[in-house]
């Protein structure tokens, strides 16, 4: 664990959690890494991550987890450069209500994917229907195991977790997505957002579909939250919205959140929160540079284009994907992120960052922007003179 600045030593007691199912090997050059200059960070948090992991195909991995101002670290991360017949695996888990569900998935989801994907053979055959069926089966089985564990554990545990996993091959990436983390691709510096968040609010097609599904299952959405409580509509665990819905209603009565008369009218027809993944397939080409997978602790405070530009500038400066991951986490903290932040970056090895030409601004676009700005200012001055 490397602290961002000497002033952060007193925060070591706020333990950062960064775990991998494979227990990645320690840094090969720890002394050199320790000597690297760290960029400034305004927040008192430690960052932990491996040295850049590499695989035979030339992909280099970096990842970092930051606790942020939260009292607990509820994110988890797994990076497996091998083990799936030529495909790499990386996943980010964003827990809520405690870390136990994210920890369970960190330890178990990869195993389920390996089993259902037959060690990667299903991916290698690249039959889209077979891949989708396998990934949905893996996610469903992982959720069933987690729900059973939550129901049988001695201590009451109502935690849950999102999960977004990527399966990276030489020419394609498959994504299985549950929750509100995000995957973004840089293609010659242009931003491609590859996933949509599962949230019960907003006017996007995905959000409207989620709201409709929740209502059809007998639930309701209040202030952008399912039953006024949870703001993500797909997740693992969360037994109070799956097998313990009646208990959830009764607890709400006891807490004064709603009345007996209200719950007498509720008729559930299904789970309010589900772990069924959206599955995406994206073709990579020579112009595909890197992929960023991160929890919403980044995306709620930095848009996708800014993140891509930031990482690209980092790689142009030093080419170190691990340092870029850590710097991106620091940048989110500088923007006052109030959440845990977990970031995985896969540099696809197709770009010579040291010799990448500097991108020239579009002169016509810049002139148009300047002209529009001058026009708006002039209009404002003219209107002010009329009113005075």
Topology as a string of helices (H) and strands (E): EHEEEEEHHHEEEEHEEEHHEEHHHEH
Output the CATH class name of the largest domain. Alpha Beta
CATH homologous superfamily caption of the largest domain: PPM-type phosphatase domain
Mean pLDDT: 84
Helical content class: 25-40%
Q: The biggest beta sheet, please?
A: 8 strands, antiparallel
Question: How far apart, in Å, are the first and last alpha carbons?
Answer: 61 Å
The CATH architecture of the largest domain? 4-Layer Sandwich
Specify the structural class: alpha+beta
Q: What number of structural domains do the residues give? A: 2
Outline the structure in words.
This protein has 388 residues and is of the alpha+beta class. The chain folds into two domains: 278 residues, Phosphatase 2c, domain 1 (4-Layer Sandwich); 69 residues, no CATH class. It is built from eleven helices and 16 strands. Strands 1, 2, 3, 4, 9, 10, 15 and 16 form an eight-stranded antiparallel sheet that branches. Strands 5, 6, 7, 8, 13 and 14 form a six-stranded antiparallel sheet that branches. A hairpin with a 2-residue loop joins strand 5 and strand 6. It is globular. The N and C termini lie far apart (61 Å).
């Amino acid at each position: 664990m490397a602290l961002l600045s000497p002033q952060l030593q007193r925060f070591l007691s706020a333990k950062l959690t960064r775990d991998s199912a494979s227990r990645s090997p320690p840094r090969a050059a720890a002394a050199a890494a320790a000597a690297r200059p760290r960029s400034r960070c305004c927040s008192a948090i430690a960052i932990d991550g491996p040295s850049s992991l590499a695989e035979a195909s030339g992909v280099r991995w970096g990842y970092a987890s930051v606790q942020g101002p939260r009292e607990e670290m509820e994110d988890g991360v797994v990076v497996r450069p091998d083990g799936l017949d030529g495909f790499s695996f990386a996943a980010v888990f964003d827990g809520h209500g405690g870390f136990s569900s994210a920890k369970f998935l960190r330890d178990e989801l990869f195993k389920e994917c390996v089993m259902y994907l037959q060690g990667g053979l299903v991916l290698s055959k690249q039959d889209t229907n077979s891949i989708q069926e396998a990934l949905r089966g893996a996610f469903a089985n992982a959720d069933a195991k987690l729900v059973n564990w939550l129901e049988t554990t001695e201590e009451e545990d109502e935690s849950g977790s999102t999960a977004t996993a990527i399966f990276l091959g030489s020419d394609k990436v498959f994504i299985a997505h549950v929750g509100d983390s995000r995957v973004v691709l840089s293609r010659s510096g242009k931003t491609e957002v590859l996933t949509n968040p599962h949230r019960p609010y907003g006017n996007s097609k995905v959000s409207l579909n989620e709201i409709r599904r929740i209502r059809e299952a007998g639930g309701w959405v209040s202030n952008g939250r399912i039953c006024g409580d949870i703001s993500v509509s797909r997740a693992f665990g969360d037994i109070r919205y799956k097998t313990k819905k009646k208990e959830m209603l009764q607890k709400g009565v006891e807490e004064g959140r709603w009345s007996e008369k209200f719950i007498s009218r509720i008729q559930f027809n299904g789970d309010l929160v589900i772990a069924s993944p959206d599955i995406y397939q994206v073709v990579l080409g020579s112009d595909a540079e890197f992929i960023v997978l991160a929890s919403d602790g980044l995306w709620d405070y930095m848009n996708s284009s800014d993140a891509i530009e930031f990482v690209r500038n980092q790689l142009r400066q030093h080419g170190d994907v691990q340092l870029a991951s850590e710097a991106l986490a620091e940048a989110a903290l500088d923007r006052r992120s109030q959440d845990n932040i977990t970031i995985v970056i896969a540099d696809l090895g197709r770009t010579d960052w040291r010799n990448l030409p500097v991108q020239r601004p579009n002169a016509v676009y810049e002139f148009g922007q300047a002209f529009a700005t001058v026009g708006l200012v002039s209009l404002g001055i003219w209107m002010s003179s009329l009113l005075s």
